[in-house]
Each structure stands twice: as C-alpha cells, then as structure tokens.
Structure to design on (707 residues):
C-alpha cells in the first residue's frame, strides 16, 4: 500500500511514517500542501492521510484541488479539536473518512484499508 | 444683582436636587428589601401631592367665590329694602312737618287763636292727612292758647318741657315717640313762627305712629325676621318682635350718628346668628333696623357648602383609594418585572460563563493536542521499534514504559475530547425519534458496567409515547452522562430507575433515579458549573455542564433533587418538537 502523509508537524509526520513503514507500507510524506500535490503527480499514492490545519495551503484546499483534478485517490482527514467540525464537512466534500488527533495507529490502518477496499470496488 | 440671581437659582436647584434624590432617584440606589415599600410610599405621596393640592386650592377658591357672590346676592336686596323703607319714613315725616309749617305760615297768630278757625283747620288736616291727633297753638309764654283735639290742654304751660326750648332754638322740632293719654305711641311736631313783634309762637301737632307700623309691615318680612325704628339713644320707637316693646331700650349698640346704610353679621341676645341691616334717617333722629336670621338668608349657601364639602371629601377619598391601589399594582408589577429580569440575567450569565469556558477549553485542547499527537506517535514508534527489533536486556522494561506513556496520552486524549465535546458548537440535527428507544440504546451501552458493579436497572417507560423531534446524538450524550453518574454514585450494589412519561401535549418527561450516595445541598447547587467535580482524580467536571448545555439547546429543562446517602433524581423535560419550525427543517 502506498501512503502519502501530509502534516505540517514534522515530528508527527516522520514518526507516523516510520511506524507505517515498520508495518510494511510504502510511505512518503509532505509538510505542506504544495509538496503534497507535487508528490501526488510524480508518485501517485493509494491513500492520502491529510491534516486539515496547515499553514498556507490547508488540508481543505488540497482536497478541493484533488477533487478539481478528478483524483480518485481516497483521502483520510486528520483534524485537531478546534477544527473538528471540519471533519464531517471534509467528508461531505469528498474525503473518505476523518480521524481526530491524536490517532490510534490501528484505527488509522483500519480506515486506510477500508478506503483502499472501497476505492478498488468502485 | 447677578449674584443674587445665581443664589436664587442655586437654592431652587438645591431643592430640586433634594426632591429628585429623595423621591425619584434614591430608590434605585438602595438595594434593600424595603426599597419597593419606599418606592410605593414615594409614588403615593407624589401622586397625592400633585392631585390633592390643586384640588384643595380649587375648592378653596370656589368656596371663596361662591361665598362672595352668594352673600352679595343676599345682602344687596337687604340694602335696597332698608333704603326704600327709610325713604318712606322720611317722606311721611317730611309731609307732616310741611303741613304744620304751611298752616303756621298761612295763618296769623290771631286767626289761629280763634277756636273756630282752629277747629276748622284741624278738621281739614285730619281729612287730608292720616295720623294727626290734635293741633295746638302755644304763645311765646309757652301757654296753650288755642287747641283742637280730644284732650283738655287749653291753658297748659309748656315752659318746663325740653321740646319747647328745642323748638325755640331750631324752629322745627320732631319729638321722639311718647305715650299719649290714650296709651298710644305718638310723636309731636312743633313749628315756631316769628310774627311782627319779634315774639315767636309755636304751632304743635301730635301724630299717631300707627302709620310707622304700617310702613314696617309693608316690607313683607318673613316671620323669623324683624324690623323696627330706634332713636339715637337706642330707645325703640316701634314695637320689635324679638327685642322689646316701644320705648324700651334696644339691646344692641349701633354705630349711631353715621348716615350710611350697612349690614352687620352678628349674634343677637338670644345667640342667633343674624344679619342686621340699619339705615339712619337723614333729617330725623331715627334709625331703621332690619334683623334677619342668617340661617334663613344663607340657607341655599349652607346647602351648597355642605354639598361642596361632601363632594370634596368623596373626591379626596376616591383619589387616595385609587392612588394607593394603582401604586400597589404598579410596584407589584415592577417588582415582578425586576425579578424576571434578574432571573433572566442570571440565566444569561450562566450561559455566558459556559460559552466563555467553552472557548477557553477549545484553546487549551488545541494547544495540548498537537504536542499530544507528537508524543503519541513518538512513543508509538518507540514501542514499534522495540517490538519489531531484536531482543535486548531490558526490553520488557522498555515495553512497560512506552505502554505507560501511551496510557497517559490516552488519558489526556479523553480529557481533551471531553473538553471538545463541551466546546464544540455542532449544529443540532433534529430528526424524528422515539425517546424510549434512545434510552434503551444508551442503557444497552452501559448494561455491562452496571452488571459488573451489581446495579439493577428498572425501566418504567410509558407506552404510546408520541414520537419527538430532537437530536439523537445529543440525547445519547445526555443520558450517557446522567446514567454514568448514577452508576458512579452507587457502591456495593443498588438500583437505577428510569421513568418516562408525557408531561403535557408539548413536553415529555424522563427521570433517572439512583440509590447512590447522593449529594449535599451545597454540591447540588454547583453540579451544572464547569470544572466542578467530586470525583477527584478522574472527573473532568464537564459531564453535567455539557448535559445542561445540550438540554438548553434542545429547548428543555433539567432538574436535580438529591439527599445524601439516599440517592439522586434527575428529571428532564424535553419538547416534543423544537420551538420554531425552522429548526426542525
């Protein structure tokens, strides 16, 4: 499974990436929206895990750009507490699901697998 | 000058300031239990002041005016009656004096000395003029030389009598009334005539004063009134009905000697209130007196006065009654409005407190959340690395440590999620639901824990409960919070009873009663305040405030009753449909 992690907190994103890699996933990460979109073009992932709150281009904007480019890649949103309402809103905008930080790794993996399955069945 | 003005203005302002402070403003400044009493007192005083004072003024002015005009109306006729009658008397006397004077001028002493001539003249006089009793001629030696009349006065000498000297001095003399030989009151008229030899002789006539009585009775007075003549010495010249017979002393003092006509308001000898009118005859020593009792004259005035007084008293009574009634109502309404405002303000304050704490909680949650996420991932990675890596000497210990970290992170997460639950303003989603169903769902969720803690749950759910429009998720949260608290309050087994019913056509009721440890009155007062907790160590103090907030958001009510060591009962009242239809759509 190819995963793209997008979060502005480098400590968070690197640790999570390593943990997923340990579980046998192919992981790339980005700390801002532009880099994330570039990665998607150069090396399209199976699943995107996207933080909603980022300086500059936020998760919502990235999601909008992806949907505008007719991307079929499933997106799992990560939200902080102040932006919790953004989770359901993001799902309405086309995200597959959302999780509230801090995330439980097994829950995240379960959602990613769900997303992948649904993407394949479509 | 300007300084004086300023001083005047200052004083006025000071009075006004005092007035407003005492009567208008002071009330608001006083926060004492009797401030409404004072307000009521001030309103009553002010209203009475501004209504009764003008009324009193008006009544006084009216009274004065009526008094004046009515008295004028009554007194003026008295004046004219007195004057008219006075003129009749004057005319009567003048006529008689002229007659006697004419005879004295027309005839010589010698002619009058002849008894035949005298008798003839007397006869003619009696025929032409009423009242003459006799006629006599007196020579300069004061001896009656000729006489016509009923008495034997011929040859009588009058030199000792005072009237003889007075007529000598004045030429004409009209006597006071005296009793004649026939016991009739008379007056005498004497005229002196000077003949050629410088020796004066006198012609004297006596007149019956019966005509006086006729003149007085012609005034047409009512029985309680009186009228009479008196002379300058206050001797009655005619009979008085109340104050004595002719020639008796009249009991009052009059301003004798003046020539005017006047009305006196006085008490008579019998203590009656009378209006006494007097008029002095101009040529003669008589005064006409008319006495009328006040009560008769001013009867209409007294009636009017008592009517006015009656109306005044009734009006004042009514004003006082209405003022007091209005003031009581007004202040009662004011008090009620104040109390309503006060409670609304308290409610607002509470919800304001909740919302500001919500904002604070959201901020705290956000600040803690990011580092917490990092700790979570780093610790997770450590655990992963240990788990996936090779065995080493203290591997077990490291796994234990990272697990402890992750457990703590989870605890923090629970707190921040709770805070979030409190802070979030997710829109309420109304849907059709069955309240009993929601309760059963929540209970299913908690059944295991209850069982584990040896707690029995009893459901007394009303059948045929109407479906309601509300937010299922929020209701879950509410029941979860309350039932969790109920479970937590019970130690060593107990009972939780959940009852539902229809309170009224618009409201459903639910009560959750436990047999737990209960709360003190002090604790009960604070249970809906954020961060108030008795579960030290593991409570967030947010469960019930969140519950309270949700219930309010759904348009319901929540009440709690509790007794220490006996248990707690929460009662919820929920609207069947939201207050406005837009919310439902």
């Amino acid at each position: 499974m190819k995963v793209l992690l997008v979060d502005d907190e480098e400590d968070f994103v690197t640790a999570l990436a390593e943990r997923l890699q340990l579980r046998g996933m192919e992981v790339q990460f980005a700390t801002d929206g532009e880099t994330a979109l570039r990665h998607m073009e150069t090396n399209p992932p199976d699943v995107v895990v996207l933080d909603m709150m980022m300086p500059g281009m936020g998760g919502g904007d990235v999601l909008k750009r992806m949907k505008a480019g007719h991307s079929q890649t499933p997106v799992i949103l990560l939200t902080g507490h102040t932006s919790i309402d953004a989770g359901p809103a993001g799902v309405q905008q086309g995200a597959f699901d959302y999780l509230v930080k801090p995330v439980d790794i097994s829950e995240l993996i379960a959602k990613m697998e769900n997303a992948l399955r649904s993407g394949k069945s479509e | 000058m300007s300084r004086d003005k300023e001083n005047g203005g200052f004083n006025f302002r000071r009075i006004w300031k005092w007035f407003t402070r005492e009567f208008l403003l002071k009330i608001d400044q006083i926060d004492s239990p009797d401030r409404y009493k004072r307000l009521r007192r001030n309103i009553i005083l002010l209203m009475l002041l501004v209504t009764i004072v003008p009324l009193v003024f008006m009544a006084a002015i009216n009274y004065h005016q009526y008094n004046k005009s009515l008295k004028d109306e009554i007194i003026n006729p008295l004046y004219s009656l007195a004057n008219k009658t006075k003129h009749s008397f004057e005319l009567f006397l003048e006529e008689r004096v002229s007659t006697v004077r004419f005879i004295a001028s027309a005839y010589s002493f010698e002619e009058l000395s002849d008894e035949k001539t005298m008798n003839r003249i007397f006869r003619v006089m009696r025929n032409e003029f009423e009242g003459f009793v006799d006629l006599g001629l007196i020579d300069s030696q004061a001896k009656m030389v000729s006489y016509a009349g009923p008495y034997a006065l011929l040859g009588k000498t009058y030199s000792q009598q005072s009237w003889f000297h007075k007529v000598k001095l004045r030429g004409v003399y009209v006597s006071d009334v005296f009793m004649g030989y026939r016991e009739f009151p008379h007056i005498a008229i004497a005229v002196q005539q000077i003949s050629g030899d410088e020796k004066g002789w006198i012609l004297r006539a006596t007149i019956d004063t019966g005509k006086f009585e006729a003149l007085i009775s012609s005034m047409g007075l009512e029985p309680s009134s009186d009228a009479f003549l008196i002379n300058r010495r206050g001797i009655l010249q005619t009979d008085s009905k109340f104050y004595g017979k002719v020639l008796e002393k009249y009991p009052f003092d009059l301003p004798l000697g003046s020539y005017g006509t006047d009305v006196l308001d006085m008490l008579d000898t019998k203590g009656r209130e009378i209006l006494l009118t007097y008029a002095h005859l101009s040529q003669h020593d008589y005064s006409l007196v008319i006495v009328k009792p006040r009560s008769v004259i001013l009867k209409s005035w007294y009636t009017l006065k008592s009517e006015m007084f009656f109306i005044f008293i009734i009006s004042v009574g009514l004003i006082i009654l209405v003022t007091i009634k209005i003031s009581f109502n007004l202040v009662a309404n004011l008090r009620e409005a104040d109390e309503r405002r006060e409670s609304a303000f308290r409610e607002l304050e509470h919800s304001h407190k909740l919302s500001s704490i919500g904002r604070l909680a959201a901020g705290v949650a956000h600040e803690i959340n990011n580092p917490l996420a990092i700790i979570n991932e780093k610790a997770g990675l450590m655990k992963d690395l240990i788990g996936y890596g090779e065995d080493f000497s203290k591997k077990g210990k490291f796994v234990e440590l990272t697990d402890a970290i992750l457990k703590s992170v989870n605890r923090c997460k629970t707190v921040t999620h709770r805070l979030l639950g409190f802070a979030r303003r997710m829109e309420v989603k109304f849907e059709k639901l069955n309240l009993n169903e929601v309760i059963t769902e929540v209970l299913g969720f908690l059944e295991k824990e209850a069982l584990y803690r040896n707690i029995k749950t009893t459901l007394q759910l009303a059948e045929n409960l109407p479906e309601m429009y509300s937010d299922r998720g929020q209701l879950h949260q509410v029941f979860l919070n309350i039932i969790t608290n109920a479970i937590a309050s019970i130690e060593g087994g107990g009972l939780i009873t959940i009852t539902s019913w229809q309170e009224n056509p618009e409201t459903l009721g639910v009560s959750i009663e436990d047999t737990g440890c209960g709360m003190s009155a002090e604790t009960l007062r604070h249970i809906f305040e954020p961060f108030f907790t008795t579960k030290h160590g593991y409570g967030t103090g947010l469960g019930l405030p969140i519950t309270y907030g949700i219930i309010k958001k759904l348009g319901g009510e929540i009440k709690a009753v509790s007794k220490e060591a006996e248990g707690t009962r929460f009662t919820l009242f929920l609207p069947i449909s939201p207050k406005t239809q837009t919310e439902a759509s």
The beta strands of chain A are 2-6, 26-30, 47-51, 75-79, 97-100. The two ends of chain A are 17 Å apart (CA to CA). The mean pLDDT of chain A is 85.
